[in-house]
Amino acid sequence: MTTVFSPFRPSMLAVATGLVLASGAGAQAMPKGHHGCATSTLNVTGQGEARVAPDLAVVTLGVTTQADSAAEAMQQNAGQQRAVIDALKAAGLAAENIQTSGLNLNPMRDYGENRQPEVIGYEASNMVSIRVSDIDRLGEVLDTIVAAGANQINGIDFRREDAGQTQDDARRAAVEDARHKAQILAEAAGVQLGHVIQIGDVDTGHGPSPMRMMAADMAKEGGTPVEPGQLSMSAQVQMKFALIDDSSPCADHRRKTEPAGDMPPPHGTDTGAVAPGEPVVPDGN
Questions:
Q1: Is residue 32 helix, strand or coil?
Q2: Same structural domain, 229 and 166
Q3: Above pLDDT 90, what percent of the chain?
Q4: CA distance linking residue 58 with residue 43, whole number of Å
Q5: 72 and 46 share a domain?
Q6: pLDDT tens figures, 129-149
Q7: Cβ pair 227, 156 in contact under 8 A
């Protein structure tokens, strides 16, 4: 009988296995980067803006009335508001472009000194929002509703219904701005700007500001002038870039290990190709 002795004892095998596991855990903990080197990054924020002419105006308008009793205030308000809505429809606005946005009835109080507040009447308010797509006629429409009895106009909000393309232009401008900032910072730091690691669109929540107008300013002779101007769409992006430092040990390691483009191999290197005229030797396998 022949007995074979193993040079490894169970305790030695366990130690060897532990070394392999420890080595694997260390490799996972290494920072990600080129050839195991840590990657330096640069975070920047870019701002962008694009402008476009509006093609829609949203106006909030209505009637406010006051009377001694609540019923009388509501009755007066209903009559004036009905006349305003009829005038809007007569001016060419479709019913789907007229929407009630607020209806309020509140007591009016007299706050005298050294006594409890006293109710002296009631105030009723009925507001509607209208959408005017023909902006050139907006001044005419405003004059019409004031003449019909509207005594409150809270604001004009100019919009663009197909604003998606303009918003995309603002995003492109924001990306260009972020890349420009990153390039300047990298040059100032003496490093090269690498690839984009991460990019994200930031919701600023800012839209075009409405133009506020008061009813008292609309009864001027010659009609109400309205200048729509242009809408400004803004965008903000956050970008993370990799940085390349050619003077670091990692960059030196990269230059030594990476192929040098299309340069031919050194003389005498076996590339595996058969030279012209060289006999082909069959594979012994």
A1: coil
A2: yes
A3: 57
A4: 40
A5: no
A6: 999 999 999 999 999 999 999
A7: no
